[in-house]
Design goal:
single chain; alpha/beta; UDP-n-acetylglucosamine1-carboxyvinyl-transferase, Chain; 4-stranded mixed sheet; 14 helices; 24 strands; globular; binds uridine-diphosphate-N-acetylglucosamine
Amino acid sequence: MDRIRIGGGRPLNGQIAISGAKNATLPLMIASLLSAETLSLTNVPNLADVNTLSRILGNHGVDVTIAGKRAGESPDHGRTLRLSAAEIVDTTAPYELVSRMRASFWVLGPLLGRCHEARVSLPGGCAIGTRPVDLFLDGCRALGARVELDGGYVVASAKGGLKGADYVFPKVSVGATHTLMMAATLARGRTRLINAACEPEVSDVAACLNKMGAQISGIDTPELVIDGVERLHGTSHGVLPDRIETGTYAMAVAATGGDVYLTGTRADLLESVIEVIKSTGTQVEATNDGLRVSRNGAGLKPVTVSTAPYPEFPTDMQAQLMALMTLAEGDSQITETIFENRFMHVQELARLGADISLDGETATVHGGPSLNGAEVMATDLRASVSLVIAGLAASGETIINRVYHLDRGFERLEQKLAACGADIERLTS
Ligand code: UD1
């Protein structure tokens, strides 16, 4: 299994091109199930999750092709993916495939919408908490589907098609919002999704669905109104920039010091994160094409932050912030309100010398002046990149094991950081 070696203690200076958002790419790919025509996606990041989902969609009959690079294009140019679901050949998403990637469960909505039936394996356990699917099932039932559980599978059907309805989410869920929004595009009549997730990736998918002929209004608000249409057609859509990748590199610069331009991204996608980074004493400046982040010499100030649905501070940045705050001058408090078990990075950060105490959903980070390199293990996607940030700031050598977690969500991480002066390499075995 591949590992990453980092020689810590070097500031980052230069430019990093931000990739298309993983969390928009996956539901956009799934949206291809809704139409018999081709959906063409540009700015698609080259990630393990994208390849896994291509295989899963292939099982339903979606023909996925990746366009080659054009002359003059650099590795920073995202890929173009063409997805054609002329015919859905199988409405079952089997356990062996769904268990590889939780987001593949989201095929439930579009399959029900287009084929009026779906049999999708329950996603099973996950390293960052129990992650139930009750909202998906209740929402499908609200749209008139019969939903049963049978042998670890969700079996859903809607004879004659789904019917528009009001559904109030008792809790904000990104995945359930994606799924129900997609299902409702082909339902008869009007659906209102109330207390829907407002994450920019949901808005990106809604914008793409509208280009495909859907009628969705209330985009960017917690009340999505969807007027069902007979069919959707093909379109071309550019994936929005990855705000989590943007915030992660911004925190890496805050941790190591230096001066880096993050290009091809948008400050408005991560205002809460920028505010927190600024409050540590790091400079962040929005530019025409992204962000400039710099910190020279000044110490880092501690923060008190709680994760919450967008536009508040994202759970997907919690581990990275914790790594940063181990370097602050004083105690920080970080509260995780979205996933109950998302603190597995704490014990790995401790191996690098971090002093963090946990009390329920709140971590108190006792910031200290230095971390020391050590051998650590990546436990999940965002936790593993927090170890990269800590390793870049630590003195000496850090080895990160199980980097396949990183490959799920960060494109060419070592190359992007090495180009800014980091001593980082992949050790392949
Ligand atoms: C998505 C993101 C993930 C991010 C998360 C929260 C993708 C591919 N993944 O995950 O990176 O960390 O949003 O911003 O976009 N819940 C229920 N019942 C349900 C569904 C969810 O109780 O039926 C709970 C979850 O356990 C969790 C909370 O709702 O506590 C939010 O989860 P959700 O927004 O659904 O996360 P995902 O869509 O899986």
